[in-house]
Amino acid sequence: MALTFRQVRHFIATAETGKVSAAAATLNVTQSAITASIKLLEADLGKKLFDRHSNGVTLTFDGQLFLQRARAIEACVADAVRSPHRWGRQVDGTVDVAVSYTVAGYFMPSLLSRFWRAFPSITVRLHENERDAIEFGLVNGRVDVAVMLVSNLHDRGAIRSRLLLRSPRRMWAPAGHPLLQKERVRLADLAAEPYLMLTVDEAERSAMRYWRPTPHVPNVIFRTMSMEAVRSMVAAGMGITILSDMVYRPWSLEGHRIDLKALDDDIHTMDVGLAWKSDADLSPAAQAFCEFVAMAYPAAEPVHFE
Q1: H/E element holding 61?
Q2: 66 pLDDT above the threshold of 70
Q3: Closest among 168, 132, 169 to 275, alpha carbons compared
């Protein structure tokens, strides 16, 4: 097979937006180009990467596996292009990075491992905290930058942010659930179902942003800060939930299957981004970290951190 970087970018954009049309708009190409690219990729791999629905696409199990590798390919290409130009000298020092719980567990590990290989003389000190504490730390100089859920950012005057990743939110249900067989599913269909509410990282506040405009409320049977508790309970058939693709895994710890279903309602994405104090004078180490992270997720407009 002759895998191209163009195919990788088209696949990642489609996986992250959940729609071919949105991926095409993000990359400024035609929808037919995205469709043809993905069909050729699936043919070359001999794997079905997406399930097609009337309102978008969802990753298959093979698609989830390939997404991890595709992101690594994209990051390596970005590193290769960037390294000889912007930083022609050794950069050292320490950068204090605040992270939210979800970001720490599902976003940072692979990113940090690549950063440490590129900048072995820079020490990254991670500080996990809640959103309000992270904002306080940025404004008061206790941390240099943050990688957090910027969709919940409050102090947008004192803090700048740069979007890195939009992760679609979809319904999680146990394999074989009747709602998975419906062609179109709305929040109204979920209202009578037992609902498992994740509360960590203001997840309940985010959930109510898309429930509140409707006449329906979720039938919450359990609230928890544990992602694995929600995952296991959904897989065991105790209820359904709506969470982002970034934290999705197709299997529970017990080995039970969890399937996804896109909703017809306007469900906002979970947005991960880089944040820093508006008037901060970032050190060379902090600048290197910010630019590396921004290059690893190049979908948004470039931002200068000096």
Answers
A1: helix 61-86
A2: yes
A3: 132
